[in-house]
Every structure is written in structure tokens, then in C-alpha cells.
Amino acid sequence: ASETLRVMGQPVATGLIQKNIEQPFFENFAEETGLEGFIADYQPVDVTGIKDTEQLRILKSGLFDIVSLRLSQVSRDEPTILGLDLVGLNPDYETGRKTVEAFAPVVDARLQETFNTKLLGVWPFGPQVLFCEPEIASLADLKGLKVRVYDQNLAEFVSLLGGTPVPIGFPEVQQSLARGVVDCAITGPSSANSAGWPEVSSFTMPIAFQLAMNGYGINLDTWNNLSTDQQEKLQAGFDTLSERVWTYSEELFIDAVNCNTGSEPCETGTKYDLVLVEPTAADKQLVGTAVPNVSFPAWKEVCDATNQGCSDAWMETVGADKNM
Amino acid sequence: MGILDVLIGFSIMMGLLLSGLPVASVMVAMGVAGGMILYGPVLLTSMGPVLWGTSNEPVLTAIPLFILLGELLLRSGLADRMYATLALWLGRLPGGLLHTNIGCCALFAATSGSSVATAATVGTVALPTLMERKYRASRALGSLAAGGTLGILIPPSVNLLVYGSLASVSVGQLFIAGVIPGILLTLLFMAFIAAQDILSPGGAFQDADVPWSVKLNALKNLVPAATVFLIVMGSIYLGIATPTESAALAVIVALGFVWFEGKLSLAFLDICFRKTARTTGMILLIIVAAFTLNVTLALGGITGVMSAWVNGLGLSAVELLFTLMIFYLVLGMFMDVLSMQVLTIPIVVPIIVAAGIDPIWFGIFVVLMCEVGMITPPVGMNLYVVQGVRNDKGPFTDVIAGAVPYTGLMLLFTSALIFWPGIATWLPEALGR
Amino acid sequence: MDILGKWVSRIFGVSMLFLSGFVALETVMRKLFNTSLQGADELAGYTLAFGASLAFIVAMIDRAHIRIDVLHARFPVWLQAAIDWLSVISLGVLGLFFLYVGWFVISDTLAYGSTAATPWRTPLIWPQSAWYAGLAIFALCSFVMVVRASRLFFSGRHDQLAQEFNPVSAEEELSEELDQLKER
Ligand code: NA
Ligand code: NA
């Protein structure tokens, strides 16, 4: 007998990870997981007309069995999730993997408890980096500039640097850069490339403010209806998928930065000629200071308010080696 | 789920709509019924987040703000003086005051998204003068009905906002894309009026020549409309503001004009608020209903089924667009344009995107076809409005006859847009790069 | 009902003016002084949600919810009345539906203590309560109208029903415009 799982995927608009890794995985669900007779009815979130901020609620209700969770967006309902990706916490992929290893179990436990959801895997969309039209040589130059941000932690960090954070939805950013509504904007280099940001900016600094974590969640009822053998296969399938995304995400990042700055090899995007501003040691240190100075204290307050012991759990796992 | 099921569902829905039940109720009922069949009661718990998500959407906030803007300017008596001024300037062109109708509608269009109130106001001011000067009734009425439709093409436009939210494309880009087609269509209407008058004179009196000093002095009446348009479009062009922000700026400035006119009173605001609330409620309920129906359409894979079906027809992009043109022409005869938009956009946009057509460009195409729908019988809002304004008790066929050539012009213009997409895409691209 | 419409419109209008003022100030300050008040977008979203639920009420009182009346106007009076009656009922059911599915949103927000991921960290229950209250009034009004329409329908006063609950026609809307034009 065939069983159909309803799957809500990443938005089509986000680009290559969705197109080349996620969608093919679900289209060949049975082969990929070894779950014979299983089919995934895959619908990207933007096609469904449901807002990504509502994903946890939708998953809990059971309308979908598996959801590719946009962790930053759904943190509205469960701030614990943000502990995976505080601003400045994961300057590179290596650190990101360690953070996920340490903190994903905490998030999983919380999601099972309150959202009837099991976390199957966490992966990064990729480093969120800086694009500017005015010349910048270091992060200190953000002082006095208007910077498009996509969430609150980042907004506070930009304020700390002396810039003005401007929250704008992704589709309006290209135009806003073109007309000077904002001077700088932060996103992944690959999304920036496909949205044409390099056409309207001149400088880019590939320093990771965040890794833009996403994850797969499965409705617990669906999960519990599977046999132990099936559960193992499914988990193994998602482990493979997440690992595949981690690798691809990093390749994509290097390639996209090359494309944006006119270097080789550039295979995944349009070639542009942005000036590459290499982050200095001081810049990296500055981003790192965001954790104790801005993102952790702010997050601690919000998170502990709804999930007691949330920040303690973080300190015991991720924060253990952070000298905080 | 095959094409047949989709057609059955669609026929049931059309039947319910044509019987005269509220469009929003029918759409929600179809969405819920379809969803329950496909998914069961779990769908209901998920509709809540959809309802909140659609209501709490900052981009859509521009809709009530632009409606309020139009109401403030309209009810402060701006249109009356604007007409008189334009009459001084355009009245001596071949075709006379008919140009003033088009010009006044176009100017008003630049400050408001509502075409009913615009056509009604300009019509009321214009018709007595037009009749007195023995303009042929069909020509006068046709120019008013057609001129009124410019309101939704020339930004700000509620219909472009609705398109942008349903098709998830930038409303700012859509507004910018609407400017050149709006101006060209206005000029095309004027050229047609001149040609019509030269080939078969309409028999109207010529206006007396007016001294330049009077003409120049009258220009001050155009200041409020020009200011508001410059604020709205300027702030979007120059990147000072998003559409919602530009609407807010314009509302504050318009409030200033009303105050300056000495019209700012509780009674005045009450009328504006009431009209704005009514129109907003009407539009947003339909949009919320459309998003509810959308969830079912998407989850049921109906959008995919339709796309695949159209793909299977093997049409080229141009053939597809001309097919859609006929489809919208027919639909527009029987449906009001907002219902037409919300019912078709979620299904049609994925199809045209798959065919490699720019969704921003397509927004202008859809709005042009909506304009056509406003002046084609039997259901053509602007035809009713203009017929209602006249006080000579002439036949309704006058209005229809007068509007027919404009329908032809708009279809011609839409065809031109298909062959030269740059008409709509050039400006946003030139500004974006 | 008309008084209610007037006051609901007032609250709606004042919210929109307040929002315009706030957003305009935010925009000007951002451009001229490079500082941001933050949260204009967020406020715009909440105002729309609240305003929309109020606007539904006004549109219902003023019979402005869109209906396609091309055939309707040509039906015999009893059929028109029956459809008008069903239309009122359908809006009542719609109001109930909104209340029912909206409740899931409210109860989830309460359960999770959801807070907007924005500079204001607005507890979502505030704007959602205002929104839900608007929906509740919408449902309540529609029940009152259902009662009125049912009474007319079952006592056979079909003319009266058709007159009171017909969709507002272009002529009616126009005559209203003309009245207001005379006052200017
Ligand atoms: Na307009
Ligand atoms: Na029509």
C-alpha cells in the first residue's frame, strides 16, 4: 500500500538549495529514504499561500506531515529555536555544525513538548553577508548608514555598530537599494545574486552575521504511526539530506561570492563585479562580540519568558566553551 | 484530481456566483468544502493562521490608505475646479471638451484608485456643459466611461496592489510599470478624439478664446493633484518610501490641503471614513476569501493541474496571451473586475510564469483587461455610472455605443503591449539597474 | 445599525489617520535624520488586521459586499428575496467561520506566549485580540441581520426583504454621490 506524506517545502524564490537538493529528495522520497511505497506530496510554502511564520502552527495541526521549517520566521512562536543561530554565534560552517550538534536536542525536546513536532534535522541556508552601495572598508564604516535587516537580533547589532536598521521584506530590497532607501543590505550571496542585488550595489563583505538555519520537522502523530524500522529509515534519510545540504550550502556560498565579485569558478549565478572587502581580524572579532553584548542577552530575556531554563540549557551546551 | 473535477468545481462556483450570492461567501464556502473533501477537518484549524496572516499584511495596508487619499481629495471639491481649469487649456483642441474629460480623469487617476467615484464626479461636472454645447451624447458619455477606467492603470491603483499581493511581486515595481502605459493610453484616447472630430465633426460650439493670464492663474487648481501624485510616485521612484509609506505621506499632505481649504470638519471626515471603510471592507473581504480558497487550490494541486493542462495545449507565449485576452474579455463582460482578479490571478500567474512571461508585465496586462471589463456590457460599472449621471433620460445604448471604440482601442493597446513588452517593463528596468 | 456603522467607521478612520501620521513621520525621519522609529511596518500590519475586521462590519451594514447581480435583478421578486435571505445567512455563517477558525489563532498565541520577532517584541495577543473583537462584532451584526431578514422572509414580506437586502446598485451609489456633490 502506498502512503502519502504531505510536505511543505522552502519557498521556490529562495533558490538553489530548494531546487537542487530539497525538491529532488522529496520527489524521489521512497528511494531516498528506503521507505517503500511512500510518496511525498511536496508543496513549496509560497505556493500554498500560507505564511512561513505560521509553519509551526500548521505542522501541529497536522495539515502537513513534514515541514521544512524557516527557523527564524517561526521563532515568533518558539524563541528557543533562535539559540541555534544568534547573531555572531556562527562565523563559519565549522562552528555552525558544532552549535547544531550541541543545541538541536534542546530544540527538539521543546518542539515535541509544545508543538507535537519532532525535529529531523537542521541545516544552514548559508552565511548572511553584507552588500553596500557606498564604499566600506570595514564594519566600522556602517556607522551612519541605513542597513536592511531581516530580524531583531540583527537590527540591534546594526544599531550597536552605529547604523540604522531598516526592516524591509526581501522582494522590495533590490528596489530599495537602487533608490537609496537603504545603503546596505544583508542576505546570503546566492539569494542576492539571483535577486540582482549586485546590479544596485558596489561592495560586498563576506562575513557571516548568521548562518540562516532551517530545519525539518515531522508531526509527532505521523512519526508515532511509523514502525521503529520505518522511523530509523526516515531519520537516516533526513540525516543524509541535511548533510547533503550542509555540503552544498558551503559550495554554493563559495561559488556565489565568486560570481558576485567576478572571480572563477562561477557556475551557479550571474557574474558581477562587486568589490570584495575582505573582513579583517578586527571585523571578525567585532561580529563575535555581538553574542555577549547584544544577541544573547536579548534572546535570554525573550526565551526565558516562555520557556523557563531556556538560556541555562544554552549556556550548558553551546555556551560552555564561549568564555561568557 | 483531474481537469474534469476542476471544471465541475468551477461550474458550481460560477453558478453560485451568478445566482447573486456574496462573492466572498461563495469563495470561502468552495475553499472549505473542497478542503474538507481533500483533507478533512484538519483544514479548518489551519485556516485560522491563513486568516490572520492575510489580515496582518503590511503591503495590503496601502489599500485603505490610497482609498482614504482619494476620498479626501474628491470630497474637498478638488475635481470640480480641476475640470474647469483643464477645460480652459484643452477645450480648443479638435474634439474640444472631450479632451478635458480624459485629461481630468487621468489627473484624478493619479491621486486615486477608485474609478467609480472618479467617473461619477467628473461626469457630473462635465455632462451639463457638454450637453449645453451640443456634443454628440454617445461621444461625451463614451469618453467619460473610458476616461474613468484610467484610475486603475495610472498609479496609485488598488487593482495593482491586489495583483501584487496575490502574485507576490513588488507593488512598487508594478506602480512604476503602470506609468508609461497610463500616459500612452491617455494620449491614445486623446488622439482618437481628435481624429474622430476631424473625420466627422461632432457639431459642438467652439470655446471662446481665454486670455493667458486667466489660463495661467487657473493652474493653481491643479496644484493639489500634482503634489499628491509627485509625493506618491516621487517617493517610490526616488526610493524614499515603499507604497504603504508613500500612501501614508500622501494622506497627511491631502489632509493638509483639506484643512487649507477650510473643509476639515467632523462631518467631512465622517463621510470620508464611512466611504473608505465600506470600500475597504468590500475589497479586503474578497481578498481574505481569495487567500482561503487559494490554500485549497494549492494543496489540492489544482493550480498544477491547470498549469499542466494549459502546457499540454502547446501554445506559444503570444498565443497564450491572446487566449487570455479573449478569456478576460468574456469574463469581464459578466463579472466585476475585483472578483475577476482574485478568482483568476492565483491560477493564471503560475501558468504565465511557466511560459516565461514577466509577472510584473502581466500585472499591467491584467489591469488593462480589467479596464476593458469596466466598459463592456452587460456588467460594466463605468457604463452604469455614466448613464446614471446624465439627466436627459437618453437610452443606455448611447453609452454602450460611445464606449465601443474605446474598448477597441484598449484591446489594440493590449496587443501592442504583447508585441512591445517594453512599454511596461522599460521604466522599472531603467530605474532598477 | 446606521449609528453603529458611523462609530465603527470613525474608529476605523482615526486608526488609519494615526497610522498615516506614524508612518509618515517614520519615513521622513529616516530620510532626513537617518534615524528610525522602527516598527512602522509592524504597526501597519496590525492596523490593517484591526481595520479590516471593522471595515467588514461597515461594508455589511452598507450592503457593499460584492455580489454579481446581472441575473439577480431579472429574477421574480420571491426568488430575489430568497437569494437575498440566503446571502444574509451566508454572511452570518462566514462571521461564525471567522470566529471559529480565529479562535485557534488566539488560543495558540495564548498557549505559546507568542511575541513578534520585531523591535517592539509585541505580544501578539494584543493586536490579535483587537482583530478578534472586530470579527466578533461582525458576526454579531450579521446575526441581527439574519434575524431581521428571516422575519421578513417567513412573514412573506418579500418586497420589503428585496428592498432592504438587495445588493446596492450603481444607481443608488450614484445618487448618494450626487447628494454629497451638491453639498460641496
Ligand atoms: Na490611480
Ligand atoms: Na464588463
From TrEMBL, chain B:
Any one GO molecular function term: transmembrane transporter activity
Description of how the protein assembles with itself and partners: The complex comprises the extracytoplasmic solute receptor protein and the two transmembrane proteins.
Database matches in InterPro entries: DctM, TRAP_DctM
UniProt feature coiled coil, ranges: none
Statement: the UniProt record of this protein carries the keyword Cell membrane: yes
Pfam family membership, one: DctM
Sequence ranges assigned to domain TRAP C4-dicarboxylate transport system permease DctM subunit in this UniProt record: 11-421
Alphabetical list of PANTHER family matching this protein: C4-DICARBOXYLATE TRAP TRANSPORTER LARGE PERMEASE PROTEIN DCTM, SIALIC ACID TRAP TRANSPORTER PERMEASE PROTEIN SIAT-RELATED
Subcellular location: Cell inner membrane
Membrane topology: Multi-pass membrane protein
Family label: Belongs to the TRAP transporter large permease family.
Protein name (Swiss-Prot/TrEMBL): TRAP transporter large permease protein
Keywords from the named record: Cell inner membrane, Cell membrane, Membrane, Transmembrane, Transmembrane helix, Transport
Function according to Swiss-Prot or TrEMBL: Part of the tripartite ATP-independent periplasmic (TRAP) transport system.
Transmembrane segments annotated in the record for this chain: 12-39, 59-78, 140-162, 174-195, 222-241, 247-269, 281-302, 308-331, 338-357, 363-385, 406-427
GO CC terms, sorted: plasma membrane
TrEMBL record, chain C:
GO cellular component, one term: plasma membrane
Keyword Flavoprotein attached: no
Record GO biological process: C4-dicarboxylate transport
Keywords: Cell inner membrane, Cell membrane, Membrane, Transmembrane, Transmembrane helix, Transport
Record flagged with keyword Transmembrane: yes
Domain Tripartite ATP-independent periplasmic transporters DctQ component, residue spans: 21-151
Coiled coil: none
Record membrane topology: Multi-pass membrane protein
TM region positions: 7-23, 43-61, 82-106, 129-147
Subcellular localization, as worded in the UniProt entry: Cell inner membrane
GO MF annotations in UniProt: transmembrane transporter activity
Top-level lineage group: Bacteria
Main location: membrane
Entries under InterPro entries matching the protein: DctQ (IPR055348), TRAP_DctQ (IPR007387)
Quaternary context: The complex comprises the extracytoplasmic solute receptor protein and the two transmembrane proteins.
Family listed: Belongs to the TRAP transporter small permease family.
Role played: Part of the tripartite ATP-independent periplasmic (TRAP) transport system.
Protein name (Swiss-Prot/TrEMBL): TRAP transporter small permease protein
Organism for this UniProt entry: Marivita cryptomonadis
